[in-house]
Amino acid sequence: MSAKEIGGGVPSNVTPAGRPEFDVGFASDTSSWAPYQKLVLLLCSLVIVLDGFDALALGFAAPAMLPDLNLTKEELAPVLAIGLIGMTIGAAIGGILGDKFGRKIALLVSTIIFGSMTGAIAFANDLPTLGLFRFIAGIGLGGALPNVTALVAEYTPQHRRSFAVTLSLVCMAVGGVFGGFVSAEALPALGWRGLFAVAGALPLVLALALFLLLPESPRFLVTRPEKSNELRQIFERMRLDVPSDAVFVDRTESGVNKPSATTLLRPPYLGDTLLLWLAFFGCLLAVFMSFNWLPTMLADAGFDLSTSSRGLLTFNVGAIVAAVLVSWIILFTGSRLPMLIMALGGAGGALALSRIGFDPAAPKLLLLTALALLGGCIVGLQVILYVLASHVYPTLLRATGVGLSAGIGRVGAVLSSFIGAAALSGFGPVGFYYVVAAAMAVTAIALLLVRRHIPPSAKSEATPAAGT
Asked: Are 186 and 194 in contact (CB under 8 A)?
């Protein structure tokens, strides 16, 4: 077979029948970042904004919900936990289904589930009903993340991939900021039921846009020969010329013939898989302890509902700034050192906040600054962890690998509901932030040992991503 170049400078072999091979992987990795690809980023980012809003809605609503339903913090903890169990299941199942049936359909179903079930919480009048709706919503919330990660990674040229994935996933924190603004206005005006009605309706509207506008991943479609016409249309929208008789292949993939979760626990992925699981566990334990209990801690200290919501808002603003900044730094330094600094910064920030405490009479600027820095380190790191996981695994394992990493991490998030409640009841905010510091120290150790970190962009442009 002879070699030549076809549309967009894509190198190609010629089949024995004389038909050119169009290398989907090479074209996706080296193409310009066309408006069509940026549309995918926009749609996926909007999903994550609303995923973040809905994931945090219970934390925002808790100060108003507890007295209305005559519940204590300890009674709410199982509801927080069962929602996180749903996210754990959803992350694992959503990733596997995305690799098997397509990222688009898995993401669409996830969005419909978390939107409808979050809206249903507005009608809950007792703890079992609240727990059921939150559990099912959690399945949708968890299922969205691995498929967004895979879609954005596979639609972005390699030299911009880590930055684009970060932009999409940092929208989890944008959702927290958005939720903070909405909650600060909606809780006094509409009550907690109105807040959940709004949080549920928005994803259902977005689901229609996903159905109409979101394409499937080219690197998924190349494994489905019957989808060649759809694949050709996608690359034309990406401004690449594809010969009418081209045969689509993906030469950048090697070593994985079909998606299988067991492959993650065999060489060459075993070591990094276990370390990623540990890093996700520690980081998500710290993140969700803060997400679930920060508004309540501020309310218990004497802050009003509006200030309590804005405390979590500030926490998420720090995450947005830090994640975007670090993703840019990673282009030049690679991911190991920046991620390690974030993890250690999260541990140190938690210890510092345990000393500052929560005093409504003290200047709020110091407290809000500390919350912003802590959010930047721990929530910002959570976002970059998804970027790292999308780099470690090849296309056929990407959604599964990211989903299972997130799923294992959600075990830490589940435990955070009970650990947070126990720490607050037994030791107050000081003990609470000691636990956060310990979790981030564990995360730092795991990240130090991960082998397939993202290289600087100069290297990643020359060679395929690790594991591909």
From this structure: yes
CB of 26 closer than 8 Å to CB of 10: yes
**Whole-angstrom distance, CA of residue 69 vs CA of residue 193:** 11
Torsion sign, CA atoms 86, 88, 89, 93:
positive
d(CA 175, CA 83): 17
- Main-chain phi, psi angles of 9, to 5 degrees: 75, 25
CA distance 91 to 142: 4
The predicted-structure confidence for 132-161, as pLDDT tens digits, reads as follows 999 999 999 999 988 998 899 889 988 788
Output the pTM of the full model. Answer: 0.76
Quick check: 327 and 162 in contact, CB under 8 A? yes
Q: Residues with Cβ < 8 Å from 149, sequence gap 6 or more?
A: 165, 168, 169, 386, 387, 389, 390, 398, 399, 402
Q: Report residue 65: phi and psi, to 5°.
A: -70, -40
Per-residue model confidence as pLDDT tens digits over 363-381: 677 777 888 899 999 989 9
